[in-house]
Amino acid sequence: MAHHKPTRFLGLDWSPLNTPIQRRLETLGVIHYCLVLLFGCIASFWIVAYLFYARYYIALIILAIYVYLDRYTPERGGRSAMWFRRMPFFRWGCEYFPMKLHKTVDLDPTQSYLGGFHPHGILGASAFFQFGSEGTGFSELFPGIYPHVLTLSGWFNFPLARDYVMLAGMCSVSRASIDYLLTQPGHMPIVAVGGARESLMSRPGEHKLYIHNRKGFIKRAIRTGASLLPIYSFGETGMFNQIDNPEGSRLKRFQEVVTKYIGFAPPIFYGRGIFQYTFGLLPLRVPINTVVGKPISTTRMAEPTQEVIDSVHKKYVAGLVALFEENKTRFGIDKKTHLTLL
Predict the structure, then answer these.
(1) How many CB atoms lie within 10 A of CB 292?
(2) Residue 151: strand pairing partners
(3) Cα 36 vs. chain centroid, distance in angstroms?
(4) Which run of H or of E encompasses 106?
C-alpha cells in the first residue's frame, strides 16, 4: 500500500484526502470507543434530563423501574451478547493500531480464571477491544472461555450506557461481582490491577506498574480457588501523550486527590484528531500486542491469611515479570528495559 503523507497547514498535520476507505473505517471504530467511554454516561444523563424537561414522565418511570429491577445484573455476569461483540466496528478499531492477541497456553473451560490486565494505560483501550469484543478473535483463541472486563460500579447507574457496555460482557468490579464470576466455570473476569492511579504514569516508552499493594484481587481468587492469569499489553502506554505531572507538582497532587475521592483519575492527555494528526482525543496508531500468560493456580481457602495472600501475590508478580521479559524483544522493546514495580 502506498504511503500517504500528511499535509502541513496552519501548523497542523492533516490527513490526505486520498486516505483509503479502510483506514477511515478503522478511525470510525476507534471514534466509537472513545465516544462511549468518554461521553456514554454524559449522554445517558442528558437523555434522562430531556425526558424530564419534556415531561415524558411515563417513560422516566418505566426507565427507573427497569434499572431498579435490573440492578443486580452487573454483579451476576452481566448480559453479554456474541452478536454485539462481533460487530464490525470492533474489528475496525483493532485494525486501526493494529491490535493482536497472543496465547501462551490453552485455558481449561471447566476452570475459572481471574485475569490481571497490565498496564492500565490512559483509557484501557486494549482491555476493551481485546476482551470486550471479538475484534481480535478471543473466542477462537480461547474456546469455551467467557471474558468479562470489570469497570467501576458507577457505570451501571446510567440507563442505556449500562446496557451498552453489558452487551460487551462488562460487569461491575465489586467484590460480589468478582466472587460470582469466579464460581462460574469458564468465566474470566479481567481487572486492570493498577487502577486509575496507574493511568497517571502512562507515557510512551514507560513500563511502570502499581502492583506491590494491589492484593485484593489475589484474595478474591484464593477464596474461590480460581487461577490467576497475568496479562500484559505491549504498546498500551504508547497510545497517548500526557502532560508532565512529576511527583510533588500541583497537578499531580490535584490528580491524586480526585482519584482518591471519586475513583477516577483525570490525566491530561492528547493523541490525534479525526482529520489531523497533531492533537486530539483519538489514540495514536501504534502496534498493540496483548499477551495472555500462564495460569497461576491457587488453593481454595475461605479466609486466607495475610501470609498466604502475600505468597500468592509474590508468585503472581514473578509470573507477570517473566511474561514481560519473555516477550519484550518480540515487540520492539530493548532487552535492557525492565518493568518498574511500585
Answers:
(1) 28
(2) 172
(3) 13
(4) none
pTM of this structure = 0.90
CA distance 81 to 85: 6
Query: If you search the block for the grid coordinates 514495580, which residue do you land on?
Result: 341
pLDDT tens per residue across span 192-247: 998 878 888 888 888 999 899 999 999 999 999 999 999 999 999 999 888 888 78
Give the C-alpha separation, 204 to 287, whole Å.
Answer: 12
DSSP code at position 196: H
**Residue for cell digits 466509537?**
32
- Closest by Cα among 150, 181, 183 to 165: 150
Q: Which helix (H) or strand (E) holds 330?
A: none
Sign of CA dihedral 83, 191, 311, 224: negative
Among 263, 16, 31, 43, CA closest to 154: 263
Closest by Cα among 176, 171, 208 to 193: 208
DSSP 140-205: HHSTT-EEEEEE-GGGGGSTTHHHHHHHTT-EE-SHHHHHHHHTSTTEEEEEETTHHHHHTT--TT
Q: What CA–CA distance (Å, rounded) separates 256 from 261?
A: 9
Q: Quote the crossing angle between the two packed helices 21-53 and 88-96, to the nearest 10°.
A: 120
Q: Which three cell numbers stand for residue 204?
A: 510512551
- Position of cell 496508531? 285
Q: How far is CA 328 from the centre of its chain?
A: 20
Give every CB contact of residue 67 below 8 A, 6+ residues apart in sequence: 157, 159, 162
207, 339 contact by CB (below 8 A): yes
